[in-house]
Amino acid sequence: MRLPIAGKIITLVVVAVALSCTAVLLTTMRLLEPPLDASIDATTQLAKATTDATYNANSEKFLQEARLIAGNPALVEAVARRDHAAAAALGKELMDMAGSEFITITDEKGIVVGRGHSPKYGDDFNNQETVAAGRKGESVVGIVAGTVVPFTLRAGAPLVHEGKVVGTVGIGISLASEAYVDRLKKETGLEATIFKGDIRAMTTIMKDGKRAVGTKLQSPEIVEAVLQRGELCFAQNNILGVEYKSAYWPVKAADGTIAGMWFVGMPLN
Fold this sequence. Notes:
The chain is an alpha+beta fold. Helices cover 44% and strands 30% of the residues. The longest helix has 69 residues, at 2-70.
């Protein structure tokens, strides 16, 4: 009779210990949930700050580089002479030295004299924001929305010859490139997206094995808050079937308009 009784006692002890452990686990989970949520929120906020810092650092870098390029005497002379070949050759060399993805050189009217990244010239860039500022003798940097490239970070500076503005130079990088959002993901540890309007222009989020480019943000509340009111929006929302802790904030173009949204987010699974 002793063995059955001992077995029952052991069984009762195991059950009691199991129930006790379960109770402790559930209590611990309830106690940890608020700090865990706070930690996720803090991580998202830090990722947003890191994304802004990366953008600001690039802005300052390219603005300085544009000013240095604009002070190159050989380039200024080539533009003053309307020497397309010389402007393009110098542009390519200076573009590579600056770490820029493009360089556009115009005359004083905003007509392209040469490009370092393309043989094309002669088109009118008069209405492009950094060119317009350069023609007034101003150096500027900002986001420019385009049709071929959704967003570029572009810095521009005036070319001055004998005290007179004879042209402009513009350099920068695409913000809607795989390389740029992948860098943001590496730096923040979170998924990153840049929206043109409410459409994903480039993203690290994958759908069916491909980047979810061209997909739309399915949250009217976030779209209204960010695109219409210009607010920073922290949210927990569903993105293509996955729950995320997210941050959205405006992409402001050089002309001051809200052209899209930045996004960083952590999948909760």
